[in-house]
Structures are given as C-alpha cells and as structure tokens.
Amino acid sequence: MVELDQLRALSARVGANPLLVQAAGGNTSLKVGGIMWIKASGTWLKDADSRDILVPLDHPAILAALAKDDPACESCTNFVRTDLNATGLRPSIETTVHALMPQRVVVHVHCVNTIAWAIRKDAEARLTEKLRDFTWAFIPYARPGLPLAGAISSRLRPGVDVLVLGNHGLVVAADTVGAAEALLSRVVTALARPARPAGPPDRDKLAKHCTGIPYEPATMDDTHALATDPLALKRGKSLVFYPDHVVFLGTGVATSFEGDPPLVAIPGAGVFIHKDAKPAIEPMGRCLADVMRRVEEADTLVSLSDVEIDRLVNWDAEKYRQSLKP
C-alpha cells in the first residue's frame, strides 16, 4: 500500500532525528478502511524502512471501548487484527492517543524543544504565544493509556490537529502523510529554543576513569553535555521531568560507578555508558542533556511526582516495552 510505504519512510526520517525521537520513543499511525496501523511497542521508528514495525488494529472497536472507559484500552491488544498482524507484536503503549485523533495520519514525537516548553509551570501560557497560528490544545500530564486518553478527550475540540502533552511531547495529525510531515516541521520550527553551549568532554580524564571498569565514554558529544553543563546535571540528577527519563535512566542520573548504573555523569568531565547497557541508554541520556540545555536557571519547572513515577515504572504495558530487544 502506497500510503503505508509513505508512513514508513516518514517514520524512518523522524526516528533518525535525535531532537524528535530517542530510541523506542515516539510513534506514527495511519487509519485506512477501518484499520489503524501503528508502530509496535518497543520498536524504533528509525527502523521502519528496514523492519516491519506496524501493527493493525480495529479502529472503530477501540473508539467504542474508549467511550465505555474499557480497561482493555490500557494495552489495546484486544483490538489487534491478528489476521493481518504477521509480526505478532503489540501496538504502541500510546495507541489511544492516535485512535482519538480524527485525522488519518498521526505523528507523536518526544521533541526536545517541545518538552523544554512542556515542563514549565507556565507551559500553556507560553505555548499560547508560540502556537498562535495553529489549532492546538495543551494536555496536562497524564500517564499514557486510559489516563492520557481521558485527558485528551476532555480538551479535544473540532479542528485541533496539534497536541502538546505536558511533561511528555508533541502530537500532530493530518489526512495525508505529506501534510502531517509539513505540519510537524512548522510546529517544531515555532517551538525552537536555543541550546546553551556546553563545554567539550575532558577526554584525558575520561580515559583514566575507563581503566579496569565495564564502562566506556558516550559516543556523542551532546551526551557528554549532561556532565559538562552544570545546570543540566543539577536538575537531571535529582528530578524526573518526562516518562522516558525515569523508564530508562531511573529516578536520577548517577555521578559515581557504585551499583553499576547504566549511565554515569562525571561532573565537568563527561558521561560513561555501561558496556552491558541497553542501546536506549545513551540516546536517553543525550535527550535529557538536550532538554536541560534549553531551559534556564530562572525557569520554573514541573517535575513528575513520586506517585506519577511509581505508576509509570509499575505499568504492565511499560514493562513489556522494556522487555523487548531493539
């Protein structure tokens, strides 16, 4: 199908941009003939051109279940068209977001610039200035699944094709793949924030630290900014601002090797990644650095509460996503 091929190509392009998508984050979908094709849970958008990562679902059935607040909408596995699902994979944990949008094509990204706005206490007011030329809605933070579906339903109105999810990311929707990509580009441009320059990693110091330990320096200079930008490390090591932070990096960024954490930031020197860490760890470390370099010390930010963090890490759908290999 031509449109599915177009969606795969767009997914791969979006997934290759670390300022839009990191590791298995983000998802895309296409509704056609009563079927909604959506990225599979735990897969990487950048692989969409080389691997079958789309799962087919019964779209009308999902909408009917959402109208009844059916618990089956937590995972949406009950709505998979098994006769068309050659991979046997589960649908994205954010399937309900895509199902609720009336447009045929939906693109959800964890855009770094969007998150830098969406974690502010005054996010909705500031975004109103930035997005005045768009038909959009701000959705206060809610855990993916039924809670997020309910939050979207309460604020969705006719014509809305852009959602900013508080402490989470960005959703754009259109009736063609090309229109969705164009809208994404326009919104991302409108929300651009300058990144604070970060000092380069101290490679001599990193080399000395590597001796005799199962760690190696991060491969991307932008990841090292998590350690060389003091404000990024100050906030990132003790607070959680969006779901994928806690899911992949835990409740804080380690600054020592004690306990063999997957990522260690040595202040002023750079970042180490454990040799046995999942492939998602460095992209998520870089994402945190990228977000934190786009907020200033005077910005009042809203972090996730202990209760919100607990609901994320103990969510069955999230545990499944974590269990998958990329």
SSE diagram, text form:
Blueprint: H1 2-15, E1 27-32, E2 35-39, E3 54-58, H2 59-67, H3 95-100, E4 105-109, H4 112-118, H5 123-130, E5 136-139, H6 146-155, E6 162-165, E7 169-174, H7 177-190, H8 203-210, E8 215-217, H9 221-228, H10 230-236, H11 243-249, E9 263-266, E10 270-274, H12 281-292, H13 306-313, H14 316-323
Parallel strand pairs: 5-6
Antiparallel strand pairs: 1-2, 1-4, 2-3, 4-7, 6-7, 8-10, 9-10
Task: Explain the overall architecture.
With 326 residues, the chain is α+β, with helices and mostly antiparallel strands. It has two domains: 2-190, Class II aldolase/adducin N-terminal domain (L-fuculose-1-phosphate Aldolase), CATH 3.40.225.10; 203-293, no CATH class. It is 39% helix and 14% strand. The chain has helices at 2-15, 59-67, 95-100, 112-118, 123-130, 146-155, 177-190, 203-210, 221-228, 230-236, 243-249, 281-292, 306-313, 316-323, and strands spanning 27-32, 35-39, 54-58, 105-109, 136-139, 162-165, 169-174, 215-217, 263-266, 270-274. It has a seven-stranded mixed sheet with strand order 3-2-1-4-7-6-5, sandwiched between helices. A three-stranded antiparallel sheet has the order 8-10-9, sandwiched between helices. Strand 6 (162-165) and strand 7 (169-174) form a beta hairpin. Helix 4 (112-118) crosses helix 12 (281-292) and helix 9 (221-228) crosses helix 12 (281-292). The radius of gyration is 19 Å and the shape is globular. It starts with a helix and ends with a helix. The model has no long low-confidence stretch (mean pLDDT 93).
